[in-house]
Amino acid sequence: MDLGLKGKVALVTGGSMGIGGATAVLLAQEGAQVVISARREKELTDAVNLIHDKTGAKAMAVSADCTQDQDVKELVRKVVDQHGRIDILVNSIGTARAGHFLELTESDWQQSLALKLMGQIRVAREVFPHMAKQRWGRIVNVIGTHAWLAEANAMPAGVANAGLLNFTRALAELGGPQGILVNGVNPGTVNTARLEYLMNKGVEYDLDTITLHRFAEPVEIANAIVFLASERASYICGSILNVDGGQLKCI
């Protein structure tokens, strides 16, 4: 199936590894011009090499700290200077602190919300005018099932994710009439370094509560993201797609 992504300019924040990294590879395979961003130069270099090895495409990498407004502005400016536009934004940034409520510090909360919640908001805010100008755009926010699954040892993630659900649907209402389709993907429990971190912090996962009785692989989440970023998702706006193996049982 042709997803209509050939030649589209796609910015993937948090694109050096995990879900973001897998998404960047798939977008490149579909012919998109991919730009990845993350904080660490070494991981960005490794990710660019991986994209080239797997797809033959030459991705662009920009180091940026999305907790910093100026970094975000510079990131978007560099992408537009290089490619002339941004068609797709995949917001895959954001790790939130975990641990016992009484042990999480003020700084833990502030850092978590600054990156996971405000980081995605900052990048979308900077990209949005470029998409509005061209009357076409796709924004996919990577959120997470902790928005609904209140976990005592993962409160910052839950609070940030719940905020992103509201933000995603509100931005979709603003963007839809301008040709900008905004949607969210809620990954369940994914086999990444983040999972190991959460388990070490006391977050418990019972495979029996997941209908498929296993954790997801990053590419399985990336498949959904790339679809929502494509021409094939032309009537999906303001939706939250749960890719969780049946973890959420709510109606």
SSE arrangement:
Layout: E1 9-13, H1 18-29, E2 33-38, H2 41-55, E3 60-63, H3 69-83, E4 88-91, H4 106-134, E5 137-142, H5 155-175, E6 180-187, H6 193-200, H7 218-228, E7 240-243
Parallel strand pairs: 1-2, 1-4, 2-3, 4-5, 5-6, 6-7
Structure description:
The chain is an alpha/beta fold. The chain has one domain: 3-Layer(aba) Sandwich (Rossmann fold). Helix content is 44%, strand content 15%. The protein is built from seven helices and seven strands. It has helices at 18-29, 41-55, 69-83, 106-134, 155-175, 193-200, 218-228; strands at residues 9-13, 33-38, 60-63, 88-91, 137-142, 180-187, 240-243. A seven-stranded parallel sheet has the order 3-2-1-4-5-6-7, with helices on both faces. Strand 5, helix 5 (155-175) and strand 6 (180-187) form a beta-alpha-beta unit. It is globular and about 45 Å long. The protein starts with 8 loop residues before the first strand and ends in an 8-residue tail after the last strand. 49% of the residues are buried.
